Amino acid sequence: MVALRTRHCALSALLLIGCDNADSGSQGGAAAGGADANGGQGGGVSVASGGSGGSSTSGTGGATASSLEQLLQRLRADLSGTLMAESQDGGWPVLVDEGYVAVSSNGALSQIAGGFSNWQPLALTPDQGFSFIVIAPGELPMDRGYKFTDGSSFVPDDWARSFAYDEFGELSLIHPQGARFDRFFAVQSAEIEPRTLTVLVPEQPASHLLYLHDGQNLFAPSANFGGWRLQDSVPAGMMLVGIDNSPARMDEYTHVGDVLSGSPVGGEGDAYVAFLESEVRPLIASVYGEPGRVGVMGSSLGGLISLHAGFQFPEGYDFVGSMSGTVGWGSFGPHTGETMIERYDESPTLPFVVYLDSGGEGPCEDADGDGIFDDGNGTDNYCETVQLRDVLAMNGYAFGETLHHWHESGAPHNEAAWAQRVFRPLQIFADL
Questions:
Q1: Which of 1, 7, 18, 409 is the most exposed place for a label (fewest CB within 10 A)?
Q2: Is 58 left (phi over 0), alpha (psi -120 to 50) or beta?
Q3: Higher confidence at residue 295 or residue 51?
Q4: What is the largest CA-CA distance in the chain?
Q5: Which helix (H) or strand (E) holds 427?
Q6: Residue 297, SS3?
Q7: CA angle, 325 as apex, 380 and 339 as ends, to 5°?
Q8: What kind and span of H or E run contains 384?
Q9: Percent of the chain scored above 90 by pLDDT?
């Protein structure tokens, strides 16, 4: 049997796995078949023994659910419901009296490999519509990673609470220690449809907490234009919470309705920021606590809704960031008088630091006379961002203190451009 990984893969503070692989090819090498587990395919319950080592800082998953048999009975009675319920409780793999339970509902993925098995595949125990393994409750090895496998391809556990990224993509983690990603499924409110939250948990206790929108684009190397890869630029001690968008993004990320291509759109921003306050923040606080400094930030429409969150809940944030924010929304069709430029112009100075940026260029023009400079050939929301900057400065925000602005001349409107300059607002927030 060829070990899939022969050396320890350390989880760094940047949540990338650095591995020295003795084998080449697919994930960890082209191993196939099973190893000498206690119980194999069709023979008893698969139990893997843990190794030794590790630190004292552990992840959030693994709250004891019950005995193994009780958990199996629930899975047999309602597989999808139990998978979801446990993911929203302590998270998978679930800690029962006998150990950590990992479950595969894909019949083709009948084996598991991970640090606990020296990356040699172990057969899962088949059951009614799923298969599982119990990982012994002794000390886990430093390498908490695992993936399901059919013997040739290796697939992360979609239900795992915690994960990281290695050179092969997502890597599931068992009750991890230190820096990691955690995720929470189906977070919703009465007005906002379910979505996933992804939390970048820092190596050290968090002093700052930043909420961000368009969560699908923030961390994954496979995201649009390579994503933001915030794990590469986040300062030490900062926790990041990425909130996935939904098909209703255009409505949820806009504070008023507008008209695009002759059709009305938008205006559900109040419900979205209420969801952030009533559902997302309490959930994060219940699991991790809430540090002294809290911010909210996004790009494009995500920047717009961040400014709206700060406007609606000014005492709730220390920092509001807008990267290439669509702050002229409300003036694309018939002028509403409710653009974020106008709202902040009519407001007293609010008690948080504002960061604004854009790429692009002018010229900036107000051809229709509605007071918003959005009628020229400006790109990447440059003109509207500069106008909001000037409004804030005239209304008492102080440059370098409560107001920060950056112009990345000519930069396009995409994730790659935001990734290149996101270190600026992150460091400004970290310095508060």
A1: 409
A2: beta
A3: 295
A4: 78
A5: helix 423-430
A6: strand
A7: 110
A8: helix 382-394
A9: 79
Other Cβ atoms closer than 10 A to 296: 31
Q: Rounded to whole angstroms, how far apart are CA atoms 408 and 401?
A: 20
pLDDT digits (tens, 9 = 90+) for 279-313: 999 999 999 999 999 999 999 999 999 999 999 99
Please provide the average confidence, as pLDDT, over all residues in the chain.
Answer: 87
Domain 10-17+33-162 CATH class label: mainly beta
Residues 255, 295 contacting (CB under 8 angstroms): no
Please, which residues bridge with residue 94 across strands?
101
* Cα–Cα distance for residue pair 226/418, rounded to 1 Å: 11
Residue 280 phi, psi (nearest 5): -70, -55
188-430: which CATH topology? Answer: Rossmann fold (3.40.50)
Counting residues of the chain whose pLDDT is more than 70, the rounded percentage is 84
**CB-based contacts of 69, cutoff 8 Å, min separation 6:** none
- Which tokens belong to 417? 């451009």
Show me where the domains of the chain are located.
10-17+33-162, 188-430
Q: For 226-276, how does the pLDDT look when each residue is reduced to its tens digit (9 = 90+)? A: 899 999 999 999 999 999 999 999 999 999 999 999 999 999 999 999 999
CB-CB neighbours of 401 under 10 Å:
8
As given in the structure block, the two tokens for residue 1 are 């049997």
Q: β-pairing, 154-155 with 180-187?
A: unpaired
CA dist 364 → 330, 361, 367, 372 (Å): 17, 8, 9, 9
Q: What angle do CA 214, 220, 222 make, to 5 degrees?
A: 105
Q: Which two tokens mark 352? A: 């948080």
Name the DSSP letter for residue 160: B
Buried b (16+ CB within 10 A) or exposed e, 42-72: eeebbbbebbeebeeebbbbbeebeebeebb
